[in-house]
Predict the structure.
Amino acid sequence: MKKIVVSIVVVFIATAFSISAMAESRYKLLRSKNLDRSVAKRTVYHIEIDKILGDEEIKKILEQAVKDLAKKRAVDALAVALYFKGTSHPFANAYWAPYGDWSKAERGKPKSIFKTSISITQQLKPTKSSNVEKFDLSLEKRKMIYREICQSQRRTRQIATQKYPSDWSKQGDYMSELDKKYEKKICDKYNITDDQKYEILGEGVSHSWPD
């Protein structure tokens, strides 16, 4: 009888551990930052996921992350910013704080009043088009194209300003002429069409890619 009880306990512990490990494996911890103030001590964690998920799954991951990270250090409030892999802005945030309100953090408040509040910014939420491939180009390659075009546009603006320093109309015309010339070279280099170029530019702006 004792052997059976021990076996059940071992199985229960192993199952609980595997569930916890599985939940943690769904996100990757990128970095953390302590915000120490005289009123309260707050910590912000940045995590990322690499799969497109629905809102309910995103909420579950954030709730699990809050539980995991709240054990790491004693804080008066904790925030978790969720990124999609390869992006530079979080699209969802979780706050573990008194009444779920980050601004109400204060030293010594009982954890019994702490709640988790979650928000998702739909405009920044990744879609299938922001996942690995588009026009047979990886996300990293599209970012590279976006950066090259932005650099080219800065260069043409500088050239046009130097050539026509006091004539805005000629500056604009010359800039357009140079943009068309240089961007065609970039399109040819990566074998993309003008429409695909504009779609990549729009994707870069909406996701705040570095330029």
Remarks:
- The longest strand covers residues 28-36.
- The radius of gyration is 25 Å.
- The chain has two domains: 25-127, 132-206.
- The chain has a mean pLDDT of 84.
